[in-house]
Amino acid sequence: MSARVVWLAAVLACLPSLLEAEIVAKRQEDGTLLLVTVAPSPPLGRAQRRLAPPQGLTSWIDRYATEHALDPRLVQALIQVESGYDASALSRKGAMGLMQLMPDTARELGVLDPWDAVQNLRGGTRYLRQMLDRFAGDLELALAGYNAGPGAVERHRGVPPYRETTDYVKKVMSLYRGSAAYSPPAASAPAASPPAALAAPRGRPVVASRDARGQLLLTTPR
C-alpha cells in the first residue's frame, strides 16, 4: 500500500465527518492545496412534514413569490430541496445559498451577495419565474431548467435524463403537492475535534480549520 493511500486512510479515520460530505479540492494562488467539505443535498424522507421555513424568512418568501406571481409553497419546496434552508450551502458545482444560484446566474439576476438570504431569495424567485415563462408554465420543465439549465431542457425536449435532475423534479413536486415531504437526516453524534495537523505525503502537514460559514478546510501549507 502506497504512502499516499495510507495517508488518505488516516485522514478519513481521524475525520469521520468527511464521510458525510463531498470534498472539493482547489489550488490557491500561493500554491496551497485547499480541500473544502461540501455538505451533500439532504435526502427526501418518507415522513409527512409541513413545509416550515425558519422564522423570519416566511414574510420574504411571500413577498418575492407574490412579486413574481409564484405560489409561496412552490418556493418553499424548491428551497427545501436545494439547500434545506441553509443560507451558507455550497454545492460541488459552486451553486450558492438558499436557492443555490450559480455565480454567473447570480450576476445576471443582479444578486451582489449570494450568501445574503434575502438577495438570494429575490434572485432565485426571479429565475424560477423566468423558467416558468420560458416553458409556458410547465412546472416540471421549469424545475428541470432551474436545476440543469434551460438549454438542456430544450435539447432533450423535456426533462433531461440526468438522474440528479429527474430526482430533483420529483422531490420538489412531491413536496409542493404534499404527497411526500423533506425529512432531515437524523442528527449524528458530534465528530471528535480534528487534530491540528496530520502527516501528509512527503512530510507536508495538513492543517484542519473551519471558515466563517463552518465549513471544514484542510490545507497543506507550502
Keywords summarizing the entry:
222 residues, alpha+beta
Description:
By secondary structure, this protein is of the alpha+beta class. Helices cover 40% and strands 12% of the residues. It is built from eight helices and five strands; from the N terminus they run H-E-E-H-H-H-H-H-H-H-E-E-E. It has helices at 3-14, 58-67, 72-82, 103-108, 117-134, 139-148, 150-156, 163-177, and strands at residues 22-27, 33-38, 197-199, 205-210, 216-220.
Please summarize what this structure is:
With 222 residues, this protein is of the alpha+beta class. It is built from 8 helices and 5 strands; from the N terminus they run αββαααααααβββ.
